[in-house]
Design a protein that fits this description.
elongated, mainly alpha, about 180 residues
């Protein structure tokens, strides 16, 4: 079943919320002492965080569009019958092995185990659940760590946010000098 627009919107909103929360965590960690000593007001810091978030949001949306199809594929396969799922796994063994480390998702192991077990048995179903749990975790981690979120938290952008919030650049209330560099 293809992902509908509502599901895609919900997932994008969840990603935006995680990203915004992470920006807040970084900023409040960096400026804990200044906030405690009332050198910086929380409202000022929140304004800068929102501005930085708005500035980097387009790259987050671009990043999300790269993963939407993978999530759609994941959900289609998760809802498939056992026979279709096994066929998917056989056909996708190579692409999945190219995407994920052998230690993280050993598709060959899963295929061997599925073929050794009786279809529809408790063990078979438990193994299928385990496979999807691992795949979901890997896809979630890759989605969060890679592309836009990773770009936002690379040393360069992390440094930009710290400089922006620290006032090392004139006009730290607006952050435009730092963000545009």
């Amino acid at each position: 079943m293809p992902m509908n627009k509502r599901t895609g919107t919900i997932r994008l909103k969840e990603l935006q919320d995680r990203y915004y929360d992470r920006l807040q965590d970084i900023a409040y960690e960096v400026y804990d002492e200044q906030l405690h000593n009332l050198i910086i007001k929380p409202e000022e810091l929140d304004t800068d965080i929102r501005q930085y978030f708005r500035h980097t949001l387009p790259s987050l949306q671009e990043f999300y569009s790269r993963y939407a199809s993978q999530w759609e594929y994941f959900h289609e396969t998760d809802e498939a019958s056992d026979t279709k799922f096994l066929r998917f796994l056989e056909n996708s063994a190579y692409p999945l092995s190219m995407k994920y480390n052998l230690v993280d998702l050993n598709v060959k192991y899963y295929l061997e185990r599925f073929h050794a077990l009786k279809p529809r048995s408790k063990e078979w179903k438990a193994l299928r659940i385990l496979f999807f749990d691992k795949w979901h975790q890997l896809l979630s981690n890759n989605e969060f760590i890679s592309t836009a979120c990773a770009k936002s938290f690379t040393a360069c952008n992390y440094r930009s946010l710290r400089i922006c919030l620290s006032g090392e650049v004139p006009g730290w209330y607006g952050c435009s000098e730092t963000i545009n560099k």
